[in-house]
Amino acid sequence: MRIRPPFAILLLAAGLLAAPPAAVVHGGAGSPRARMDGTDPAAAKALATLKAGGSALDGALAGVVVLEDDPRFNAGTGANIRLDGRTIQMDAACMDGATGGYGAVAAIERVRNPVLVARKVMDTPHLLIVGEGATRFARAMGFPDYDPTCAENKARFQRVQAILKGSDPRQIEAWKRYDWKKAWNFPTPLKEALGPSDTVGCVTRDAKGNFAAAISTGGTTITFYGRVGDVPMFGAGIYAGPKGAVACTGNGEDIIKHLVAKTTYDLLARGLPAQEAVDRALRAFPPTIDLGLVAVGPSTTGGGCNYSAEKKAFVTDYRRQMAWSVAQ
Ligand code: ASP
Fold first, then answer.
1. Is residue 230 lining ligand 1, measured as CB closer than 6 Å?
2. Which of 39, 159, 210, 218 has its CA at 20 to 30 Å from residue 301's CA atom?
């Protein structure tokens, strides 16, 4: 039966009709708007998966895989090279809002798509597997050895060395006060080094009105061996439930302290439209620490970031920042 638009709106408002599938994707708090040429196809892929009958979780994973395979983003191929100039460690997570299922990996090395390994963790009795255990788990699940190093992350690493010398105002403050060379914990000796951030994330609503979120990163700019951010921390980097899904990006340490994904989800659960929930989360966050997020609710979508990659400055016109794309 075809439901005519005015009735559809009433039924949607009453929660009696699932809104059409939707996907919202982000390319990281540091991503310029021009990089929507990467987030648009990722959102389109997620939506196509949903329209082909895939679950919200299938859609979210499909969106993140596109971004992990795009070397311009700091996830999967192209993930940040850490301080030693050679190590790549990645974090990823996914959550199914319909079942509450959650899976994550942290500091995993040498896999092409960490988010797909996180999906496998969801099937185990665990929530999170880290380090060498995560890499070995990936092999046991059939994921082959893969080196995510490429021209893009090598070039980024060179810029990082310049950042270390003090020219980027954005993430360096905490490190100016910290003698990181004394804490060098890489297997290889200290040379001169450091790296910019950008997580990728995708939230979805499927045809049944279920929600999911998925996320993947190579970590923040200046990153020790074994450092883990918000991405695999339950309720911090992503959250999905019966009322929506949220995926974050930005300085992981502060995202964890503010439990941004779950806090934003709680706004969706109270009935706020997704864009309003995103705006409130951004307004509640310290204005000089980078945060971006995307969200989807029962009939709404939203996204934004407090940092402008173009202006290299913190801003309050959140919706017009960061590469983020909606497909519905
Ligand atoms: N949130 C990520 C982390 O802290 C980095 C990012 O989003 O850019 O690992």
1. yes
2. 218
